[in-house]
Specification:
The chain is α/β, with parallel strands linked by helices. It is 41% helix and 14% strand. The protein has two domains: 269 residues, Alpha/Beta hydrolase fold, catalytic domain (Rossmann fold, 3-Layer(aba) Sandwich), CATH 3.40.50.1820; 174 residues, no CATH class. Strands 1-2-3-5-4-6-7-10-11-12 form a ten-stranded mixed β-sheet, sandwiched between helices. The protein has a two-stranded antiparallel sheet with strand order 8-9. Helix 7 links the parallel strand 6 and strand 7. It starts with a helix and ends with a strand.
Length: 493
């Protein structure tokens, strides 16, 4: 992996979806006064970073009640700080990704911004080093994440349904006191507490993928507290769940076909193509793993885990050579590389432990933000359409939202566009063949947020900052000195 920001950010969980509810516009809000946050006691924590914690209300309707901890990290500016905003708050998305891990791994890709800002990231509520949501032990999570997602017989379907129900019940048992207070609206309120604790009168923010949704919520709730929001790989809050999943099936299929076409064009330089057509071989591999998982040490590479590994690499075109290597190794009955990429995506550590991305952090946020349909028939009817869009990816995506159908708490916020009134221009960045956050989402949010500006990157892969110098320069100029690119600006990869 490189130090490029866009190369190591696993930004949006596969097939991030919106709720299957009516697209009702969410009412605008004025900032709600909360008690001033305490100061953050920063201490050195290695690698030139400082770490600290901030106490925030668990329930913002009762700000004097229970507090939870937000873990933060910062890298001090290498030059004079921007006089209008000393800090740049950063979030890598997910939901459920650790901002602390992100900044430690990717600060080198933010060198220009670090000349002007203290770089600050945090683990959102429910995530990692902040007060975390947890659900199950590692062996249970191993089983849960390896279950076949192509529910093509009654026994598999019932097993998957029961697994989702059991997981949701475990989350309620272990973190039920936290679950009602997750969701991006409260994360945006946390962001304003962080802004105030940092001493900035207005927020300067760089959000990737699901982090763009946090930014949209912040602009919705605190428009007059915005200095600059750069939202890269935009999540559209107005897209119904099934349409969102379908759009992402199409997007990943397009990126997969681009990889396969490149592999075929390179001939023997693509090792996976040396012994047959790569597309046909990949389809045959998934069929074989469905009936006979591949032993990898004391573990098994199932079809579900193999597909996770493939899709993880398809997030970023610069990683295509790794997909060639992993699939070639599987040809030789060696599933270690493909399982490595699945583990990387799932946040499984070499010792068998997990981060909490898929052990509560993701679901506790997403299931409140986008309440899923609870009628099983709403999922069943997707099968033919999804399979037509992608015979390989589509069948495993039909029930992508089912885990939220059984979530123990329901959202009280209607799904729909997030109105923004009184904020300065907001920069939106979208890639034309982004598989996880389709370009149409960025275009839609551009229409929803008056005065926003859409910057376009032509090319494959998820995320644009650090991938295109043109995009990176434009985002930097906006964040540093508020230079907004001309409407209609298009950059190549």
């Amino acid at each position: 992996m490189t130090s490029h920001v866009a190369k190591v950010v696993v930004l949006v969980t596969l097939l991030v979806t919106a709720a299957c509810t009516r697209n009702l516009p969410v009412a605008s809000h004025s900032p709600t006064p909360f008690p001033s946050p305490g100061a953050i006691a920063w201490t050195a924590c290695g690698g030139g970073f400082q770490c600290g914690t901030l106490q925030v209300p668990l329930d913002y309707s009762n700000p004097g009640g229970r507090k939870i901890s937000l873990a933060l990290i910062r890298k001090l500016a290498t030059g004079p700080v921007n006089p209008a905003s000393s800090s740049l708050l950063i979030n890598p998305g997910g939901p459920g990704e650790s901002g602390i891990e992100f900044l430690r791994g990717d600060a080198a890709g933010l060198t220009n911004l670090n000349k002007h800002f203290n770089l600050v990231a945090w683990d959102p509520r429910g995530v990692a080093a902040s007060t975390p949501v947890t659900c199950v032990d590692a062996p249970t999570l191993d089983n849960y994440l390896s279950i076949d997602s192509v529910l093509d017989d009654a026994q598999e379907k019932q097993a998957a349904i029961q697994a989702d129900k059991d997981f949701a019940a475990a989350c309620q048992r272990h973190s039920g006191d936290l679950l009602p207070y997750m969701g991006s609206a409260n994360t945006a309120r946390d962001m304003d507490q962080v802004r105030a604790a940092l001493g900035d009168s207005k927020l300067t923010y760089l959000g990737f993928s699901y982090g763009t949704y946090y930014g949209e919520w912040y602009a919705h709730l605190f428009p007059t507290n915005v200095r600059a929001l750069s939202l890269d790989s935009v999540v559209d809050p107005s897209v119904p769940a099934n349409d969102s999943v379908y759009g992402q099936v199409v997007g990943f299929e397009q990126n997969l076909q681009a990889f396969l076409a490149d592999c075929r064009a390179r001939g023997t330089a693509c090792t996976y193509a040396r012994t047959g057509d790569p597309g046909a071989k990949l389809t045959a591999l998934m069929t074989r793993l469905d009936s006979t998982p591949m032993n990898v040490g004391n573990r098994q590479l199932t079809r579900s885990l193999a597909m996770t590994g493939v899709l993880q690499i398809l997030y970023d075109q610069s990683l295509w050579s790794y997909l060639d290597q992993a699939l070639t190794a599987v040809d030789r009955n060696d599933g270690r590389l493909l399982l490595f990429w699945a583990d990387f995506y799932n946040k499984r550590n070499p010792d068998g432990t997990y981060g909490n991305l898929f052990n509560g952090a993701y679901d506790s946020e997403f299931c409140l933000d986008f309440p899923a349909p609870t009628d099983l028939a709403a999922y069943d009817q997707l099968a033919a359409k999804f399979a037509q869009a992608s015979p390989l990816i589509g069948p495993g995506s039909v029930y992508a939202n089912l885990q939220c159908a059984y979530w123990p708490v329901r959202s009280k916020t209607p799904q729909g566009p997030l109105t923004v009134q009184g904020a300065p221009p907001i920069l939106l960045v979208g890639g034309t063949n982004d598989p996880a956050t389709p370009y149409a989402d960025a275009q839609s949010v551009n229409r929803q947020i008056s005065g926003s500006v859409l910057l376009t990157r032509q090319g494959n892969g998820h995320g644009s900052y650090g991938t295109s110098a043109c995009i990176t320069d434009a985002e930097d100029a906006y964040l540093i000195d508020l230079t907004v690119p001309a409407a209609g600006t298009v950059c190549s990869s």
